[in-house]
Amino acid sequence: RANWNPLGQKTIRKCSLYSPMCWNANVDLSNLTCVSKYGGLIATVSSETQSNRNGIRPDITVFNAAGKEISAFRWNSGILIGIAWTHLDELLCLQEDGQVLLYSMFWHFQRSFTMGMECRENKVMEYEVFSSQHGTGLAVMTGLYRFLIVNNIDEPKVRILADVPGLRSTPPSSWCVLPGPRSSQVLAANESDIYLLDHSGQSTQQRPTGLNVAPTAYIMMSTSMDGKHLALYADTGSIWIGSSDFQEKYCEFNTNERSRPKQLLWCADSIYTSRNQTIGPSSSQNIALVVYWPKTILVIGPQKDWVRYNVDEDLNNRNGKASTVLCADVDGVHIINSEQHEFLQHVPNAICNIFKVGSMAPGALLNDAAKEFDKQSEKADEYMRMLLDNRQLEEAVEQCILAALDEFQPRVQMTLMRAASFGKAYVPNLKLTELFVNTIQMLRVLNAIRDFNTGITLTAAQYVLENLTMEYLIDRLILRREFKLAFHICDYLKIPENLGSSRILSHWACFKVQQKDIDDGKIAQAVRHKLKSARGVSYANIAEKAVECGRKDLAIKYCKEQNERMLKDLHEQEDNFIELAHCHIHNSFDTFRSDERLISLHSAQENFSRGRDDFGAKMTEEQLYLLAEQNKLEQELDESFVEKSLHDTMYNLLKTNHIKRAEHLRKQFKVSDKRWGWWVRITALAEQGHFTELEAFSKSKKSPIGYLPFVEVCIQNNGYTEVTKYIGKVALDKRVPALLKIGNVKLAADAALQNKNLSDLDLVFKKCGVEHRELGERVRAMMHQLTK
Amino acid sequence: SAPYLSTGCVNIGLIREESRRELLQLLDKFHGSKALVWDSALTEQISLIAEYSLLKERGVDRMFPLRGSRLPKSSVQHVVFVTRPVLALMDLIAHNIKKEEEGDGRKEYHIIFVPWKSFLCIQKLEDLGVFGALTHMEEYRLDLIALDSDILSMENPSCFYDVNIDEDGTSLYLVAKAITRIQKQYGRIPMLYGKGKSCKSICSLVQKMWIEQGDQSEDDHSQIDRLLIIDRTADLITPLVTQLTYEGLIDEVYGISNTGASFPPEKFQTSSKSDDLMTEKKKIILTSKDDLFAQLRDCNFNAVGPTLKKEAKSISEKYEERHSAKTVGEMKQFVSQMPQMQQAKASLAVHTNIAELIKEYTDEDDFMDSLSTQQDFLNGIGTDKVNPYIENCLFRKQPLLKVLRLLCLQCITNNGFKPKVLEYYKHEFIQTYGYKHLITLNKLEKCGLIRAQGGQWNYNTVQKSLRLLVEDINEKEPQDIAYVHSGYAPLSIRLAQILSHPGWRSIDEVLRIIPGPTVSGIQQFKPKKKWQGSVSSEGSSPSVVTLVFFVGGVTYAEVSALRFLSGKPDGNEYLVATTNFINANSLLKPMVET
């Protein structure tokens, strides 16, 4: 195993996760850079930060673990002095004035809090972000060398820690946070004196046990992630490595390197036998200290064993600064430079057992057996016999499965799983089968999310150690907007819709509606389609999100499916006046109470005016007016008028002989002469059979619409004999059709022959038929003559 | 089965078979005897796919319509509700299940959603407390229904409204899905064209879906050479103009849905049972399965009479043959033809009746007046002023849809109204029909059917360049597609015609004036040119097949016009796919406030 190095009883390895990286080769990690746990999100701040005071705003770029850019944005608040990822993959940005701003990885502002007045006045000099049981914590040192700590940034309660005794004008020579179960403390060194500071104002001096050489100062210190182990780096180049209560010394290691390391951190082993049965890395045997200077990484075991790695520093990098970033994870250390992303870890036991040279562990034997079997060698049988005789086959299968789970390379995973499957055939054990199936699922998921496109470097150990669940993983993917992958994973794992696919879809929908640069219609289309089949998706959520982002049109669409009231509220909120007016119009027709109706109409009118729809406003005014008239009429006449149009109202009045009242309306609403004279007046008359009045009306004034309508209303109301009264007044060109309408072919023919109009003649000819053959002949002759 | 579906240039029957197979697969999931409870809107659609006898073979013992009342008693094992994803129907289903459970609770309940399972419906069922009682909830993706040998329809009547008024593009996604289905069945279509609002996004969706479904080889012999997507908004004139073909007029007067139309029963009364009055409407299925209808459907109505006469003559001649039959063999042959002759006779009677009904309608003055007003507008006569006929209609409170149709047509042929004219019309409209129609007018404005002047659309230019007005139409032996409207050639179909020959490049300018984006040829892949090398046996080259997909609806007259083009011997064949069938009434009706 080429990348394996023994470290005392342990073996460590440095695996390359991504090489080369997706980013552009001149990416600069030497400024502020942070890497997240359980996934390896990377954020960098461009080195212009120094000129920040002059108003230059640094660029912040977020990459996935493979260096693929997720987002980039420009910092536009105060002076940025630090960034870190929280346990929820939010980017914590610390300003010099103690203001803390939290952003999503896509640069959506989440929330902010401040570390207090003291920070504003005296500035933040140094900071440390740590993980505690409560989540993510933050400690800062102010210009007065005082420490302030927030145990959990989700409940940002700032606690002031005790002052470091004996400090004068120089800052503490080094300090670090000591995360504790309830509250965290700070260890700070004033030269060679180390104090433990807590928030009750207590400071206790601590003395490392068994110190060989007393240093003049401790220039760097670091606690392990679980707060149990401590490393103190002295200016002599020697490191005291021991328990964080200073009671136990594991070893003292002299590096002979007096310069302050760039980074000092812990690499923890993760030991677990099978799922849910974990033994944390609490024992001193399971940890190693990692020290990084430019060009060198030194790994020191608790028994003074060490391994040294050379680091290729970025040549482009000016002034030989360290260009690599290390970040401790729960089961190893991420090492990232512009070229690659590596992972330093203790070789997991399961893998060690199988691949260690000369290992006789059951898993190793099974792996060999499977290999020989593939070669069709009889040795396979020998190995299997050994395992069967010692009743170790089940253990062997389990070891192979667990080893596969810890392996990064799919090729090796496959070999191991194949060996496990080979062995499993001999041991019918349901539990093993279950483990086997679960592991395969798990591996598929892990491999999928480790793909450079997604770039989440989650290890099986991280998954198991932190009791992560699939939901958590899905959440991570959602946060990264890897909706498709998340969806497929849910689908693959058959996670119930309400926990899986539907949840993803609703997140996806919320994300979609937040995209302001895309057309509403398109989004609605996309969202609606996808949600059609999904269960457990709340449209209200989406609508809410849409409003939040100013996508009102979208929200409206959901409300239409949900309820009218919400719809109105929305329009109201969004100043969508015309739509709001329409809602009020609907309301005015839905109610039977005239006061409510009036209120609705007034609101409609108001909204039309606000929306600058003059026509709408004018019509509403008319409607209000009409309504008033109708109400009056209803009281006077005991007849229903409300909801009728003006036309129908007048018509009804005329039919019941309330001519005066109709006239009144006509004047009030400036009804055109044509409308009044035409349908309303004469139709009403004809329909009641008041043909005498009709005739009188026709003579009262010259008709603005001609006299054909009189003919028509007479015909419609069976007043055939009346027609002759008007036919003489009908315009010549309309007389023939009028006569045909009353079925007087003879007169029509006469008129047509007189007019010598071809189309009239044609009309007459068609009507002549057998009955009027003679007439027909005459007409035809005339047509013939005319066409010549 | 339906052999008449398989007679076209592409075997449409395959789509039906596929849908049929899927339906049966769904039914087979419920092992044992079943009762189907139907959303009545689906019965007709599904009956186009599977007949009752087939369902019976699959254990369907009973069929009930979905109602609010209790289900009739039955001893089936499964009760399967077949429904559209409509919330109101969920109430009925829940009610049914609850009532049924009160009786014996040994039945299993299932729902088949057509054409998609909606989340909201399921949520509603959950709220109603019957979710737990349901064993299966399936989805029957009936995205295309074969209506005839050259017509596929999604039978989705709300497409135009959804897209243009509600701005809900779900239908467009479904269109892309339908196209993908067609491509799966008949091979990937090499060239994509389109005109109008949605065509671009549909094209890109179609391409995306093809990629997503993966591993489809491209050189599959594609039976369809090109796809032309026509978004209704690119041609709003055509549906507003009265259709004058036989089938078009039946649709205008009686309305055709799922290939069937209902007629007043009096006309079809058989004299023998005159005392037994028929009260239910007479429903007649109109497809090319009926030979006579196949002949008549595309005719201009003026040519229907002569065709019917000819048919009558030929039938009676055939009957006369019995006198000339002398030998036993000849008699036998005559007798063997009897069933067909009787069928032909019955069909003749039916269509004679229908034609008479239609004739009565077209002879009415209002019809003639409306038609001549339309002709005036199409000819650009008096479009800029308030039209006296429309005014009269308003004053006489004629049917609202009739007025709107003319109003919209005048508006579009005048490239929008002058502000004064527009306001006058709107005001008078509201005075006649009432204040709530302020909303109706607003919707019409939203989709561009009514608007003020402005914009690049210019009817006159389009009309001239595309030769939309054709004089001297021979309605009996038409020479141009304009016969379907007796002088007006549907703009949409002109576009299809020009695409085939000489190509859209010749009308670049006009395409720019017509609303919406243009897709003037996306090559999906290079087809093996089937007309090169392999000359078919007759020595003529195989025809080029164009699938015209109407998004937002197609009229029957447009289909007839395309059939007319297919019938020309220039080697072009057309298939029609559409979201639904429309006419002016069904286009405008959803926008009218009720």
From TrEMBL, chain A:
<dbReference type="InterPro" id="IPR006925">
    <property type="entry name" value="Vps16_C"/>
</dbReference>
<feature type="domain" description="Vps16 C-terminal">
    <location>
        <begin position="557"/>
        <end position="775"/>
    </location>
</feature>
<dbReference type="GO" id="GO:0030897">
    <property type="term" value="C:HOPS complex"/>
</dbReference>
<protein>
    <recommendedName>
        <fullName>Vacuolar protein sorting-associated protein 16 homolog</fullName>
    </recommendedName>
</protein>
<feature type="domain" description="Vps16 N-terminal">
    <location>
        <begin position="2"/>
        <end position="430"/>
    </location>
</feature>
<dbReference type="GO" id="GO:0031902">
    <property type="term" value="C:late endosome membrane"/>
</dbReference>
<dbReference type="GO" id="GO:0042144">
    <property type="term" value="P:vacuole fusion, non-autophagic"/>
</dbReference>
<dbReference type="Pfam" id="PF04841">
    <property type="entry name" value="Vps16_N"/>
</dbReference>
<keyword id="KW-0813">Transport</keyword>
<dbReference type="GO" id="GO:0033263">
    <property type="term" value="C:CORVET complex"/>
</dbReference>
<dbReference type="GO" id="GO:0003779">
    <property type="term" value="F:actin binding"/>
</dbReference>
<dbReference type="Pfam" id="PF04840">
    <property type="entry name" value="Vps16_C"/>
</dbReference>
<keyword id="KW-0967">Endosome</keyword>
<keyword id="KW-0653">Protein transport</keyword>
<comment type="subunit">
    <text>Core component of at least two putative endosomal tethering complexes, the homotypic fusion and vacuole protein sorting (HOPS) complex and the class C core vacuole/endosome tethering (CORVET) complex. Their common core is composed of the class C Vps proteins VPS11, VPS16, VPS18 and VPS33A, which in HOPS further associates with VPS39 and VPS41 and in CORVET with VPS8 and TGFBRAP1. Interacts with RAB5C. Interacts with STX17, MON1B. Associates with adapter protein complex 3 (AP-3) and clathrin:AP-3 complexes.</text>
</comment>
<dbReference type="GO" id="GO:0006886">
    <property type="term" value="P:intracellular protein transport"/>
</dbReference>
<dbReference type="InterPro" id="IPR038132">
    <property type="entry name" value="Vps16_C_sf"/>
</dbReference>
<keyword id="KW-0472">Membrane</keyword>
<keyword id="KW-0458">Lysosome</keyword>
<dbReference type="GO" id="GO:0016197">
    <property type="term" value="P:endosomal transport"/>
</dbReference>
<dbReference type="InterPro" id="IPR016534">
    <property type="entry name" value="VPS16"/>
</dbReference>
<comment type="similarity">
    <text>Belongs to the VPS16 family.</text>
</comment>
UniProtKB/TrEMBL annotation, chain B:
<dbReference type="InterPro" id="IPR043154">
    <property type="entry name" value="Sec-1-like_dom1"/>
</dbReference>
<dbReference type="InterPro" id="IPR043155">
    <property type="entry name" value="VPS33_dom3b"/>
</dbReference>
<dbReference type="InterPro" id="IPR027482">
    <property type="entry name" value="Sec1-like_dom2"/>
</dbReference>
<dbReference type="InterPro" id="IPR036045">
    <property type="entry name" value="Sec1-like_sf"/>
</dbReference>
<dbReference type="InterPro" id="IPR001619">
    <property type="entry name" value="Sec1-like"/>
</dbReference>
<protein>
    <recommendedName>
        <fullName>Vacuolar protein sorting-associated protein 33A</fullName>
    </recommendedName>
</protein>
<dbReference type="InterPro" id="IPR043127">
    <property type="entry name" value="Sec-1-like_dom3a"/>
</dbReference>
<dbReference type="GO" id="GO:0016192">
    <property type="term" value="P:vesicle-mediated transport"/>
</dbReference>
<comment type="similarity">
    <text>Belongs to the STXBP/unc-18/SEC1 family.</text>
</comment>
<dbReference type="Pfam" id="PF00995">
    <property type="entry name" value="Sec1"/>
</dbReference>
